[in-house]
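This is your field. Please look over both lines of this record.
***
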Amino acid sequence: MILLVQVVGALYGFLAVLFGAFGAHALKKSFDEEQLKSFETGVKYQMYHGLLLIVLGFNLGFNTPLESYLAYCFIFGTLLFSFSIYGLCITGAKGRKWKFLGPVTPLGGLLLLSGWALLFYSFIEEIV
């Protein structure tokens, strides 16, 4: 599990830099201001959570179900949140917005919130 978390974190970081550069240069011409901001939000959240996964991979043993659950929340939450934003922005710029992705974004956000709540709980559990 440790290696999976680190590999996914590194992949998310790599893709965040790639997508950020792609958005800043190639997509800037075809996106409106709102789409560009949304795309940047997806990239930021992807990078934040990619870095978090790497840190967690070095600091947690993933010996408990709680630690695994929080990692899965971050992995799948980032995937659903950021990549649905990318899909909405790209398809919207082409005039064929994939509306089915609209509800996916908040689901990803809910998983990210759950991951943070579980991480918080894991810290409180150690104190108590």
In short: Residues 65-93 form the longest helix (29 residues). The chain has one domain: 2-127. The radius of gyration is 16 Å. The chain has a mean pLDDT of 96.
